[in-house]
Amino acid sequence: MTMLKSTSFDDLEIGSQGTFSKTLTERDIVLFGDTSGDINPLHFDEEYASSTMFKGRVAHGMWSAGLISTCIGTVMPGPGSIYLGQELVFKLPVRIGDTLTVSLTVKEKNDRRKFVVIDCQVRNQHGKLVVCGDAKVMPPEVSAEVEAPRLPDIQIEHNPGDAWKH
Amino acid sequence: MTMLKSTSFDDLEIGSQGTFSKTLTERDIVLFGDTSGDINPLHFDEEYASSTMFKGRVAHGMWSAGLISTCIGTVMPGPGSIYLGQELVFKLPVRIGDTLTVSLTVKEKNDRRKFVVIDCQVRNQHGKLVVCGDAKVMPPEVSAEVEAPRLPDIQIEHNPGDAWKH
In chain B, which among 56-75 make CB contacts under 8 A with chain A? Predict the structure, then answer.
């Protein structure tokens, strides 16, 4: 059983940090395309993508941004947080095999309205900034631990003729 | 064969619009949780989620935000766009069965740097604003049509004991 910890507004300090890493796979791109409906061929069709300035398939920008949300919702402040807003600047493309690391740092605490502003940086395995921007989050009222859900298994059935397999 | 149209910087005008709709399913939440790694029980565990201010499971905020990206990448400006940035304000939770509609409107054209600023609004089936914020996008150099990729089939294998099925 995996437990997720959360940190309350009172227990967070300016400078409190959280981190989360994930390596982009083919599977991640397919699942993101399905759940979002974003079938832009830049993400699936190598032949098309090679003809663009990206010179090959890249992840959806919002996939990288989603890792920020993952870090906020499961690491810091963790479950019980209320996500109020997010600024995103997309700096670099992400390709299959790239490992992204989210680094969050609390930069501001609003005592009256009980929210924090978090500096968010997502870097690739070369240390290059991929996505950045501030998040505005209302942390939970009390620090706690909660059991992580176990997601169902997912099978992808490849169709050899599909454009995304080029 | 489905074709996706794109609109170049020159062919976009202040006031140009694009729209995209999607209804949130159980499947969408599971796929988003898997691809992002965001297993916050708020999205999967009905018992836990009922104990929060949301009074039940809700979608990942970034799932709703992802629909904005889908509309930008597949509708307006469409394939060939370069996503430079996005502001997001999360206004309301989204539940399974809710139908979200993204409405994009070009509000600014930067002729020197060839990007547009797009007003983005995501509303639910009751017309209530769920997510909003400006996007900064570099449209393609020429308007075109490109074949939409067909994604592979995805099967979800439910495990009766999983917390997410509560």
Answer: 60-63, 65-67, 69-70, 73-74
* Domain parsing of chain B, residue ranges: 14-23+62-141
A107: left (phi over 0), alpha (psi -120 to 50) or beta: alpha
Q: Give residue-wise pLDDT tens across range B83-124.
A: 999 999 999 999 999 999 999 999 999 999 999 999 999 999
Reported ipTM: the value is 0.96
Backbone angles phi, psi at B64, to 5 degrees: -60, -40
pTM, full prediction = 0.96
Structure tokens, B61? 């905020």
Q: How far apart are CA A107 and CA B108, in angstroms?
A: 31
What is the per-residue pLDDT across A63-93, written as a single tens digit (0 to 9) for each? 999 999 999 999 999 999 999 999 999 999 9
What is the token pair recorded at B144?
A: 């075109």
Nearest Cα residue in chain B from A62: B66
Give residues 102 to 161 of B whose Cβ lies within 8 Å of A.
133, 146-159
Instruction: Tell me which chain A residue has its CA closest to the CA of residue B156.
Output: A154
Question: Out of 3.10.129.10, 1.10.3210.10, 3.50.50.60, 3.40.50.300, which CATH number does the structure's domain A14-23+62-141 have?
Answer: 3.10.129.10
CA A40 – CA B4 distance, rounded (Å) = 8
> Phi then psi for B4, rounded to 5 degrees?
-110, 130
> Is residue A99 classed as helix, strand or coil in its secondary structure?
strand
**Helices marked H in chain A:** 26-36, 46-50, 61-74
Burial B102-136 (b: 16+ CB within 10 A, else e): bbbbbeebeeeeebbbbebbbbbeeeeebbbbebb
- A11 Cβ contact partners less than 8 Å away, ≥ 6 residues apart: A143
Is the Cβ–Cβ distance between A86 and B88 less than 8 Å? Answer: yes
CA angle B33, B34, B37 (to 5 degrees): 70
